[in-house]
Design a protein that fits this description.
elongated, 1 helix, single chain, 12% helix, mainly beta
């Protein structure tokens, strides 16, 4: 019985602390950003969430999914699918609403292919990680609102792949 009372007391004290911390205001004017990026770190596109840790430091995670079905030149049905997830740490330089952004992080991916022949079904799939980076311009209103990004977004694999990303979003 004592253990149950102690557990209830501990739970209540945790809830009270959580209620207090809910009303504490961060010193950061903008704390989060959501945006859709065309091309860029997510290959074709990505939907992203970004958390600002300090005025000039953020972390970001995004995702992109793609699937395509068709017929090969040997009249086999085929399907290709992939999911990519860029995760990045970013550093922002600049004043007010206009900033330069520098970021680096891993790009996690999963790719699967399926081909169906009269005699057999072939499935090939795999996970991987590559390094990606970004360097570009960010319009980020200090008090939140519509955001814009334009960046150079290389992918570092066995060969160095070049890309650019264009993003629109909202910060709050």
């Amino acid at each position: 019985m004592k253990k149950i009372k102690m557990l209830i007391l501990l739970l209540i004290s945790t809830l009270v602390y959580a209620q207090n911390s809910k009303f504490e205001k961060s010193s950061l004017p903008v704390q989060h950003s959501v945006f859709v990026e065309l091309l860029g770190n997510g290959f074709l596109y990505s939907v992203n969430f970004e958390k600002y840790i300090k005025h000039n430091v953020s972390i970001r995670a995004g995702g992109m999914g793609f699937s395509k079905s068709g017929v090969t030149n040997k009249n086999q049905r085929a399907k290709v699918g992939m999911f990519l997830m860029p995760v990045m740490a970013n550093y922002l330089m600049g004043n007010h609403n206009h900033k330069m952004e520098f970021g680096v992080g891993p790009l996690f991916f999963y790719v699967s292919t399926t081909s169906i022949d009269i005699k057999e079904i072939n499935n090939i799939h795999g996970f991987g990680v590559r390094a990606t980076a970004r360097m570009g311009y960010v319009y980020l209103p200090q008090n939140g609102g519509l955001t814009f990004r334009l960046a150079y977004t290389p992918l570092m694999t066995d060969v160095f792949s070049h890309s650019v990303g264009l993003a629109l979003g909202y910060s709050f």
